[in-house]
Amino acid sequence: MKNKIKRHVDGLFSGVYETKQLRELKEEICSNLLDKVNDLITKGSNPDSAFQYAILDLGDMTELVDSLREASETRLMKDQSTPTFIDKNHIIGYLVASFTLLIGLLSGAYVYLQVRHLFVALEYLAPFLLVSAPLFIYFGLTQETKHDYGMNTKRALIYSMASEVFLLGASASAIEYIGRHGLAMTLLTFGPFVIVSAIIFIYLGLTEKSRRKMDSQWQREWVNYYNDPHTAMVRGSISGALWLFSIAAFFFIGFAWGWKYSWIVFVIAVGCEPLIEAYFASKRKH
Prior knowledge:
Keywords: Membrane, Transmembrane, Transmembrane helix. By secondary structure, this protein is an all-alpha fold.
């Protein structure tokens, strides 16, 4: 029922340039309709009748939609011609993350030149990476660009935390490997971190809402296509499985046969992504 209501509301506002305010308005309308439908079902109405009654009770939206469509054309032209600037908070965040990472790289490079041991150098780099990587992810996701709105801060923070869990697992497993505790113990250490972060990433991916600004026809078609929950779930699951397998294969190959071979896994994964998108694009075209 929730998806049915969402499709109906999206249809009411089709052709209206997507803004943050419009998204919030549509979410509010969907929530009110869903509450109305559930209330009617509780009182004995069947779902179809409850849905039709709730739509009728919503009233005529033509005047509102026409006014929004007219205003959206002006907003569209303004957004396309106005450059997007990075706000002060994001500038400070990027600078802090960059400075932290730079210190880590310099420290790691200095240690490597002194002892000529890669893993020892990585031990010095790891703490700085564990701080800078989540910062880059958080500020990157919450930054508004010309084509996308910034992500909700809570959701971006969860992404950052999931990334931190994965990096902690990678660091812990690397320490196990350096300590010569064997490949089995290394993978056993890495496993729980991968499982936790993977669950979070898959959930976030499957529940992600579009932040795309509708500034061209193909973008509208792309978002409308992926608004279908089943398609979004299948597409997200395939990509998620591809990258989880790639990450696992990267560490397995690196620990088992050497890091000079493991990077090939990511080259293959990057090459598979356009093939996956091409497949879904061909279905969309049909």
